[in-house]
Each structure stands twice: as structure tokens, then as C-alpha cells.
Design brief:
By secondary structure, this protein is α+β, with helices and mostly antiparallel strands. It contains three helices and five strands.
Length: 111
């Protein structure tokens, strides 16, 4: 999957709803970023307690563009799900995945 493929996927899910905002009043036209493949840390509870794995996913939207804080909407092509990421915990080198949803709108509205 290329950055162009991801952009088409995001735009297809947005459809004609470009003027909608979410509960945090985020503007789609301002907050979408060119898709960028990055590493993220996905924290979860496993059999031995809290665990993590690093994943590759696409950054597609930033709540506060070019700032390290704020929510990020990401797309994991392995699962086909959109999710939210935040600045990492415990000096992580990567952003931390908060959770995954299904579609773009579910992630966007959960910010």
C-alpha cells in the first residue's frame, strides 16, 4: 500500500462530509496530513500483564499539526482499522497507540 492508496481510502471514507467536525471541533481540511508510514508502540494487556509491540502504521490526521501533543489518527493496513495514537509513554521513541476502531469516522469522533 502506498501513501496515495491510503489517502484515497481516507477520502473515500470522508465522502461528502468534509465540513463535519468532531466533539473537539477538529476541522478535517486543516488536520489531515499527507499519509506517512511510521512506527508506533501498541500497548495491550497480555497473558503476562501489560505488554507492547511496535507496529508500522500510517499517520493520516493530527489534532495539532506539527506539534508533538494531541491525538493522531492512524491507519493499520495489517488489520484495516483506524486508531488513535498519542505521544509515547515512558520515554518511548514512538507514539503510543491508544486504541483501534473500525473506520475513519469512529477514530475521528473518539478524539
Amino acid at each position: 500500500m502506498t501513501a496515495s492508496d491510503v489517502r484515497v481510502l481516507v477520502e473515500d471514507q470522508i465522502g461528502e462530509r468534509w465540513d463535519e467536525s468532531n466533539p473537539r471541533d477538529i476541522n478535517l481540511r486543516h488536520s489531515l496530513v499527507p499519509p506517512q508510514r511510521m512506527k508506533f508502540t501498541h500497548w495491550f494487556v497480555g497473558d503476562a500483564g501489560v505488554a507492547y509491540r511496535n507496529i508500522d502504521a500510517w499517520l493520516v490526521l493530527e489534532e495539532r499539526r506539527k506539534k508533538s501533543d494531541g491525538y493522531k489518527v492512524i491507519y493499520d493496513e495489517q488489520t484495516g482499522k483506524f486508531g488513535l495514537a498519542l505521544r509515547g509513554w515512558h520515554n518511548d521513541p514512538y507514539l503510543s497507540v491508544d486504541t483501534f476502531f473500525g473506520d475513519f469516522w469512529s477514530a475521528f469522533n473518539a478524539m
